[in-house]
Amino acid sequence: MNNDMERVQSFCSKIKNVKEQVFRDIVGQEEVVDNVIIAIIAGGNVLLEGVPGVGKTRLVRSLSRTLSLPFSRIQFTPDLMPSDVTGTVVIRKDKDGEMVSEFRRGPIFANLVLADEINRATPKTQSAMLEVMQEHKVTVANNTYKLDEPFFVLATENPVEQDGTYPLPEAQMDRFMFKLIMTFPKNSELIDIVKMTQKTMDETAEAAIDGDGILEMRALASSVPIIDDVLDYAIRLVSGTHPEVEGSSQTARKYIKYGASPRAAQALVTAAKVRALMNGGFNVSYADIDALAAPVLRHRIKINYTAINEHLSPDDVVAMLVKETTRK
């Protein structure tokens, strides 16, 4: 028992150090930072949504410094090609003058990849992200290349300016563990942001952990127990998003067009284990499931016209689902 307590305390201490370094560069957005850290430890990808200037890119750059991980940024544009992401095979002469093929790796070959304004790329280019986000490997010219672990994609998108953008396909949206909303800062936070950037525009965070440390924390989190009642609650919450399923929730039948996939249940439980450890817990609680329901489900459900006409957002519908789902 004492050994378990020491491991949990060590886990919490490492998380505290990471957050202290990140908040040297980021003002506010505590919930977003917490959830990004949860996703990274859990091995999931994150979609960050927010208007320009709220710190999406700065957060990712700061994390790369704090986590001591090789960082790569891909600026998605309409003319970006799949090979610009994954890499391409080139023909060159070897030392004997013979023509040989060689694979030159693209920017996706990094531990932490920032996919900036991912919705500006065409569906053809976005499809190049499907295999790498799910399986952490790239297939080019019948050859498969594994990426080094840990590997994460942190993508950003601007919800306001939609000219020249392409909606992300459902298959790709489902590969994001969380969709996080970065809101406009409060006036007091905006003052701190201005003061911070007057000193330097560069990130000042220092390394707090490395890739091996992240993998160790992930292994510890995977061993966190979840009792059957809490697991059943999480499963019923996800299955309750499907209006077509027998015994579905009243909320789903009234407000949801399409429900979440099984990946949502996997993401919810995996992330809840990390959150439990972050808060010093020894097992997953109902509160962990409730706290992560919106980040996991908001991009996986499709609300219908009734919800839109009643001015309900996906978050509103998820909150109703949580309230309606009973606990044993």
How would you describe this protein?
Strands 2-5-8-1-9 form a 5-stranded parallel sheet. It has a two-stranded antiparallel sheet with strand order 3-4. Strands 6-7 form a two-stranded antiparallel ribbon. It has 15 helices and 11 strands. The protein has helices spanning 2-22, 30-42, 56-66, 82-86, 123-126, 128-135, 170-173, 187-199, 211-222, 228-239, 250-255, 262-278, 286-297, 305-309, 314-324, and strands at residues 45-49, 71-75, 87-93, 99-105, 112-116, 137-140, 143-146, 152-157, 176-181, 256-258, 302-303. The two termini are 28 Å apart. The mean pLDDT is 83. Helix 10 packs parallel to helix 13. With 328 residues, the protein is α/β, with parallel strands linked by helices. It has 2 domains: 2-78 and 109-217, 3-Layer(aba) Sandwich (Rossmann fold), CATH 3.40.50; 225-324, Helicase, Ruva Protein, domain 3 (Orthogonal Bundle). The chain is 47% helix and 16% strand. The longest helix has 21 residues, at 2-22. 40% of the residues are buried.
Major β-sheet strand ordering: 2-5-8-1-9
| Beginning-to-end CA distance, first to last residue | 28 Å
Structural class, from secondary structure content?
A: alpha/beta
Average predicted local confidence, pLDDT: 83
Number of strands: 11
User: Looking at the structure, what is the overall shape?
Assistant: globular
Strand content: 15-25%
Question: Count the helices. How many?
Answer: 15
Supply Rg: 21 Å
Number of domains: 2
**Sheet with the most strands, sense and barrel status:** 5 strands, parallel
Enter the CATH topology name of the largest domain. Answer: Rossmann fold
What is the element string, with H for helices and E for strands? HHEHEHEEEHHEEEHEHHHHEHHEHH
Q: State the CATH superfamily name of the largest domain.
A: P-loop containing nucleotide triphosphate hydrolases
CATH architecture assignment name of the largest domain:
3-Layer(aba) Sandwich
Uncertain parts:
none
